[in-house]
Amino acid sequence: MTIKMLSYFILLTIMTSCSLPGAEPASPTQNSLPPTPNIPPVSSTGAPTMSGPADILLLNGTILTMDESNPAAQAIAIRGDTILAVGSDSEISNLQDARTQVIDLNGSTLMPGFMDAHNHTFNERLLNGQDPLPDQQTTIQFGITTEAEFFVDESILNKLKALAEAGNLRMRVNAYLLYTNNCGEIIGDWWKAYQPNQQIAPNLYIRGIKIFSDGGSCKAPAMSVDYPGGGKGDLFFTQDQLNQIVAEVQAAGFQAAIHALGDRALEQAQNAIAFALNGQPNTYRHRIEHNATIRPELLPRYSEIGIVPVIFGAYSTCIRTTDESKNFKYILGEEYGAWDWPWRALVDANPGLPIAWQSDYPIFPTNNPLYHLWGMVTRKEVNTDGSICDPPDWVKVGALHVEEALPMMTRNSAYALFFEDEVGTLEAGKFADLVILNDNPLQVESDSLKDISVLMTMIGGNVEYCATGFESLCPSASPSDVGADSPVATASASLSDSPASNAIDGNLETVWNSGAEPEQWIQIDLGNPTTVSAIRLHVAQSPEGETTHQVWLGADANNLTLIHEFRGPTNDSGILEFILPSPITNVQFIKIVTIQSPSWVAWREIEIK
Questions:
Q1: Which of 38, 52, 152 lies closest to 102, judged by CA?
Q2: What percentage of the chain exceeds 90 in pLDDT?
């Protein structure tokens, strides 16, 4: 885990005590979910049909569909950007023809892509004038296929739109537009120029309106009891003011997403949503973000009103078990420990309620879903020195089961984002957004959950990340190339608009771009054993600088030989050429591995002679 950031410290002021066991959860008075609002779904381009043929078949796997009506399967078929069918190997195998790519999962676990219902992955970088695309690549490598940006003003929205229109949003990004800033200052009605659940650019959607009701990153979370140093924190609005704000957002047809860390703010947010709904079902899916400190009597009100709670994942245990707590001013007395991130009590008090997961990255230091899953289940945390902070008993009381947490990270987050008809489960007709894992989170020991790795991330039928050494699990970008004699290129990673095939298309204007820093590789299957006498590499690189590239080749993709290494300064549009002392016969695979580069790894063209 990385060093904790200042903003992480600020948000941790919502943490409460160190020693009191959890209280008994209250009983719900209503268990039914709010009905789905009549909002047109986002369309995918594929046809939700069981008839073949498929572009891709993934067979012989352990498939966790997250679909309650069909929770497990062996195989999945994909056509275009859409899931064609999910079922047994024998059922899915019938959906292939000569052009279908067939991938043997060899027992690997496949599940929907993770969905982060609240973070700042793009806007944190954009606010600071930095490039957000490296963070996007890391997020995709963690298996997140859909996320929600939660601090979007007009300037940030325009920047996101520019990224999307340039084809640089490879994930599905849901923007939550600011009603207030983080100090509770209203910033105007600019958001009224948009429509709820509007797609404004490729992979970019307007979802809801963000309202800060109490402190956290500005001032202090609003509590109903005094902090040990005095004061109850900061509410930004009176109850009547917040009531009118939520009613205004609802009248415009939008979902309200209310930041509430302290229990006093949480109660006020619950009241404001109840006021706006006026006894009607929560078809707007009004949400409360964070829900960090919950008084026991507030627990059943989520179901009573129909509110969607969005909660943190990995618990910040180290602040409870080390001397770090001495550095924080806003920590409640130990008699209020049961109020602190009480996820077990929240679930028990609200059976069936679609509670969604958030990483809040980079406010918290990682958005790795499997690390968050581990934290939700074990309540442990990795300290800055790499040691494990074990939770005291009262913290353990709040732990969840894997079977409860995984839906929060997939289908429940989809519900919170009005996206459940398109993503969140693996079902025919939904987008082919999925991940392959190296182990099954339902079967490993809980302490091993954080060590599970993502081997492949697919978004809309395109492989956006493929782990080195697991290329056999990753369908190529061009199904028609499979089995052909013409060369086929695969890579360690690729931007969706810069696939590996661009490096061998004979066009210097098209580029393969990994979208990632070294070490990265691109491999070319020549289709047949060939004699190779020279290799020419056309450089795509910005900025210029020192680079190191290795050239490997051989007849067997798993047994290649290093024949040359380029070292030295390179710049965009330069050429690196290696002429072999004598031609090498029986070569089918050539692999270029970039060890060092000041930019993302990319090539304009790779020529084999």
A1: 52
A2: 75
